[in-house]
């Protein structure tokens, strides 16, 4: 068996002018390689997207409504502990699960919604994690009340412009690198005033804005949190090296097969250079700065990055929507109020939040402004309803302390929100010696009336109105519930809130 190699064409290559050699190497022999790599990358992404969509269609989710405990005095540290506990849901798919089954890391959506001034804390969870999430919440807030509710977003229009409704919406991005932290809840403490007032709750401004909404107005606040691994720590280390002026180590790219090919081509082109020109690099100055000579701002940034990297992180997408009837929409109250709430977490030398004006915010100017605004409105309402983290700019990482700063239950001593849904009473364990009859645990009488599927508002107290989509109507089962109008629901809550805290009937008066 003989193997014959024809090297005549390569020998002819050495006799060609230098320009033709370069042309043949980069555009004839190897010019197809970049296009091949781009094609393979696109094919891989399309395959992964298709398989992921098939797997996603099989998943189901539940929306949990959390009634804030009465007289809550726990700091955001309790919610931080809850987020740390919730991170146990992180489990990256293996190679087979990712590329064949389409499996990906599922996320949780932490939300606060105000519908005409009535405020509700919500968590959207994968169905399989319902008990896991409830256990973590009860561990930190034993007096909380948790119920499964219908999704409030179903009552909002899907397409805009709409005849009656209008909206403003935007994603919120970081103002700096994700390695740098925002201002966390510990920085809102001070030593002046009564002991219970030393912490100025960051939720106070948001609760005030949401409580001020009137008929026909809604404000939605959504944080999509995906438990992530520890790869983001590499970005933190690289940012510290950049601030400290530490030189980056040489990339091992030249050791790869593709790198060796490029190095070989470069050496061949250098050997064929008829001018024998050598390029001398200017000596690089040593930019590394000692800690003693470092600027105070740089020191603070390095310390803050290191502190952020000591805690568990989530991949985060923050989104907000202000939805209202056209005749009552007040952007100065709903939009500016929420943006102001997000601005309080800004540390100008570190990080903060800002609306994504270039991609998702529903405001444009100049060419074809109206059609472009409507396109953004349709896109953001769709991404909010689907709890999508892929629409808009890429997610960023916040640790559990930062996450607890921007989403936690308000402290009663600081925040006064009369229409915030709260637990009806404190739950305590029965005495050991108490005799028991038949067990009625889990009956509907243990639930708030609005969470009881058998509850109906008295017809005599409700004026006849056209029925509309139910708002936060509870459904512990898949069976459809009778729809109630938003006004009926609001009147019922007003009656419930007026009855709470009333004096006992047998209280002696002087």
List keywords for this structure.
alpha+beta, 35% helix, 9-stranded antiparallel beta sheet, 14 helices, Vanillyl-alcohol Oxidase, Chain A, domain 3
Q: What features would you describe in this structure?
A:
The chain is of the alpha+beta class and about 500 residues long. It has a domain of about 280 residues: Vanillyl-alcohol Oxidase, Chain A, domain 3 (3-Layer(aba) Sandwich), CATH 3.40.462. The protein has 14 helices and nine strands. Strands 1, 2, 3, 4, 5, 6, 7, 8 and 9 form a nine-stranded antiparallel β-sheet that branches. Strand 2 and strand 3 form a beta hairpin. The radius of gyration is 30 Å and the shape is globular.
Shape: globular
The CATH class designation of one domain is: Alpha Beta
Q: What is the CATH T-level topology of one domain?
A: Vanillyl-alcohol Oxidase, Chain A, domain 3
Q: What is the count of helical runs?
A: 14
How many angstroms does the end-to-end distance come to?
118 Å
Query: Which spans of ≥5 residues are poorly predicted at pLDDT below 50?
Result: 437-453, 455-485
Structural class by sheet pairing and helices: alpha+beta
How helix-rich are the residues, as a percent range?
25-40%
- Indicate the CATH architecture of one domain: 3-Layer(aba) Sandwich
Overall pLDDT level: 78
| Beta strands, count | 9
Strand content: 5-15%
Main beta-sheet annotation: 9 strands, antiparallel
Radius of gyration: 30 Å
Q: Element order, helices and strands? A: HHHEHHEEHEEHEHHHEHEHEHH
């Amino acid at each position: 068996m003989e193997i014959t190699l024809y090297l005549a064409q390569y020998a002819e290559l050495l006799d060609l002018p230098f320009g033709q050699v370069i042309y043949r190497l980069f555009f004839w022999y190897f010019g197809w390689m970049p296009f091949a790599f781009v094609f393979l990358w696109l094919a891989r992404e399309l395959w992964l997207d298709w398989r992921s969509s098939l797997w996603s269609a099989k998943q189901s989710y539940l929306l949990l409504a959390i009634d804030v405990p009465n007289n809550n005095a726990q700091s955001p540290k309790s919610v931080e502990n809850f987020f740390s506990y919730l991170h146990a849901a992180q489990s990256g798919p293996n190679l087979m699960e990712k590329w064949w089954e389409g499996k990906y890391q599922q996320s949780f959506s932490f939300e606060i919604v105000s519908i005409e001034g009535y405020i509700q804390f919500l968590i959207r969870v994968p169905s399989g994690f319902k008990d896991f999430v409830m256990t973590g919440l009860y561990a930190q807030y034993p007096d909380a009340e948790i119920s499964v509710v219908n999704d409030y977003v179903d009552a909002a229009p899907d397409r805009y412009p709409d005849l009656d409704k209008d909206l403003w919406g935007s994603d919120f991005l970081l103002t700096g690198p994700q390695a740098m932290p925002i201002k966390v809840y510990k920085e809102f403490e001070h030593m002046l005033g009564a002991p219970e007032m030393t912490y100025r709750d960051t939720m106070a401004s948001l609760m005030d804005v949401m409580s001020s909404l009137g008929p026909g107005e809604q404000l939605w606040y959504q944080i999509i949190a995906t438990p992530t691994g520890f790869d983001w720590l590499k970005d933190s280390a690289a940012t510290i090296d950049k601030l400290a002026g530490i030189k980056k180590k040489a990339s091992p790219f030249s050791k790869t097969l593709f790198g060796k090919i490029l190095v070989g081509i470069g050496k061949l082109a250098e050997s064929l250079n008829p001018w024998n020109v050598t390029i001398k690099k200017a000596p690089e100055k040593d930019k590394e700065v000692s800690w003693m000579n470092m600027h105070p701002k740089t020191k603070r940034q390095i310390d803050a990055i290191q502190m952020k990297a000591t805690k568990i992180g989530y991949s985060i997408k923050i989104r907000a929507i202000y939805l209202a009837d056209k005749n009552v929409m007040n952007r100065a109250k709903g939009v500016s109020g929420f943006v102001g709430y997000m601005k309080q977490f800004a540390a100008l030398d570190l990080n903060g939040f800002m609306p994504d004006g270039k991609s998702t915010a529903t405001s444009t100017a100049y060419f074809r402004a109206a059609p472009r605004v409507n396109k953004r409105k349709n896109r953001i309402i769709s991404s909010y309803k689907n709890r999508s983290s892929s629409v808009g700019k890429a997610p960023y990482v916040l640790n559990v302390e930062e996450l607890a700063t921007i989403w936690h239950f308000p402290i009663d001593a600081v925040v006064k929100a009369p229409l915030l849904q709260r637990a009806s009473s404190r739950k305590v364990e029965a005495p050991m010696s108490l005799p028991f009859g038949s067990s009625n645990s889990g009956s509907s009488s243990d639930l708030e009336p609005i969470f009881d599927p058998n509850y109906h508002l008295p017809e005599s107290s409700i004026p006849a109105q056209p029925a509309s989509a139910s708002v936060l109507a509870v459904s512990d089962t898949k069976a459809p519930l009778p729809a109630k109008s938003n006004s009926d629901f609001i009147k019922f809550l007003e009656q419930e809130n007026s009855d709470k805290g009333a004096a006992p009937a047998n209280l002696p008066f002087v």
